[in-house]
């Protein structure tokens, strides 16, 4: 409870906050939006309408008293007609959650296709997590945990089975991603700039340049 309250209160009084762009990908109806709403607002809606285009949300995670990670989250639509728009959202993303439904074997194959696309076209250092959602429906399981875990290990992915409905592993999923982000590389941006490197993410404890904003805080309807 204390951890949840600390997240909702935002940035600690002292310490550093690092900002990263995170994108969610996966087939329609696997529960991407429900996962985000559980993480951001600790809320679950049994009957959610499909996302149109993409939706933007943000949430922070306090890793310790001195370090906070802020995720700027793009929740993309899973319908096939929006697939061509996906690069707009995963371009320059620091991390991604690729979601499948454990009751639908075909959704894991779709997730694998998204992982392959990210590994080919996104930032080569992107942190990718595979999330097998709807584990509260274990009696209807079509994808065994071991099968997905083996694939995730081979592909170098973080892996969690989650339930947006029960909140199982939702916070753990995003916390594990936050812990994988290269905070040490951001601790000295001046050194990176001197070497001509583009740091992955933004150190919000330093004055921001509005022209470098990774994405707009808005609902995108396309």
From TrEMBL:
Entries under PROSITE patterns matching the protein: RAB, RAS, RHO
Places the protein is found: Cell membrane
Topology term for the membrane: Lipid-anchor
Entry keyword annotation includes Nucleotidyltransferase: no
PANTHER family given in the database record: PTHR47978
Protein name as catalogued: GTP-binding protein ypt5
Main location: membrane
UniProt cross-references to InterPro entries, sorted A to Z: P-loop_NTPase, Small_GTP-bd, Small_GTPase
Organism: Mortierella isabellina (Filamentous fungus)
Lineage: Eukaryota, Fungi, Fungi incertae sedis, Mucoromycota, Mucoromycotina
Keywords: Cell membrane, GTP-binding, Lipoprotein, Membrane, Nucleotide-binding, Prenylation, Protein transport, Transport
